[in-house]
Design a protein that fits this description.
This protein has 96 residues and is mainly alpha-helical. The chain is built from 3 helices and no strands. Helix content is 55%, strand content 0%.
């Protein structure tokens, strides 16, 4: 279990944005190329194959949390334990 726990499984917000942009760019490029090749060959199945290859490539590029997606970590605030938190007291308003 130690080996699996040492693998990073997170992305920061900038990494998520970059992964989404890469995913969209790869899909669009492969769709255009696939459509052009399918039109040239006059076989729609070639378009589907090329688009499927683009989908697989984009998944390999964006789904694993590569280190390029973890360059801007979020700095969280420290927990303030000096004062215990209490629930807010509800005010009772008297209507006259």
């Amino acid at each position: 279990m130690g080996l699996l726990e040492s693998i990073p499984t997170h992305m920061d917000y900038q990494g998520q944005k970059l992964a989404e942009q890469i995913f969209q760019a790869v899909i669009i490029v492969f769709a255009i190329v696939g459509f052009a090749w399918g039109y040239y060959c006059e076989q729609f199945v070639q378009t589907i194959y090329i688009l499927g290859a683009g989908f697989v490539l984009s998944c390999l590029l964006t789904l694993p949390p590569w280190s390029i997606y973890r360059t801007s970590p979020v700095s969280w605030q420290k927990v303030d334990i000096s004062e215990p938190t209490q629930g807010k007291k509800k005010r009772k308003e008297k209507s006259k």
